[in-house]
Design a protein that fits this description.
globular, two-stranded antiparallel ribbon, mainly alpha, 16 helices
Length: about 350
Amino acid sequence: MSSNLSSASHATIDQSGMDALIKATATDMEAVNALILSRAESHVEMVPQIARYLIEAGGKRLRPMLTLISARMFSDETGHQINYAAAVEFMHNATLLHDDVVDESEMRRGKPAARKIWGNQASVLVGDFLLGQAFMMMVETGDLPALRTLSSAAAIIAEGEVFQLSKATDLSTSDKDYLQIINAKTATLFEAATKVGAMAGQASSAQQQALATYGRELGLAFQIVDDVLDYGGANGALGKNTGDDLREGKMTLPIILALAKADKNETALIKSALGDTKADQKTFNDVLNVITKYDALEISIERALKYAQNARDALTELPPSKTRTILADIADYCVARVS
């Protein structure tokens, strides 16, 4: 696989890019985190319990940091980026709560999923609460175009999740279907996060579009890498979190690529394993062997690298700066997670 990201020498560069993003947004993230915690409060005790459980469970907060750094790129910040970043994080966490119910997930961020503690109904309703709070924070800025951007993203994300559900265990799922799913359910929020950040920085329409394109392409790369990681990463190395997509019947790129070349017996094997919530390690290993046989992980990574390069290319529309360099390095970081 030809790539300037696949060598071990880039690992430090990629992590330093993430470190630089964290450092550049640290002050604003303090304000965002304070706003997140305050808006997770409710007189209904279970609401803050579930919201804080998920919010405090970890995660890199990449999406809100992208909003903040996108605003920082421009000199005329409105201050709205704090509300937008918090809203983006609430939207993301709401989708996680809903996804865990739809996917019947057992774990989230190394801890039992909220649904396993409080139940499916409570998880769905608290997800709805977070979405409501996100929209309230957007409205408070009085910026109708930004509100339109984020509210449109919420609708598209829901469509993507429904489309993915409709394609579960469907062996006829195409590359095009897959791209439509990940563009809607993942890339759309990345795109909205960077675009509203640019809006908060009062960027020009062309600059807003450049950052929106960056966010979308970054989101596509990010999701493909996540899907590869579910089968062990670049080397197919097994880990405790591998196999969830297979057991949930998700038609991700490694499976789609493998099915395109699989023989009759291999196709039957994959078909029987997809959606089998009780699939054991041997079954997973057998499917992984088929995926590995046809280089499906490597080809998937090459696709992710292409989208990461597209993200970096979009930044050339913006003047050179330290902030632009950080965003370019984040594209490297997102893909390097798989190696």
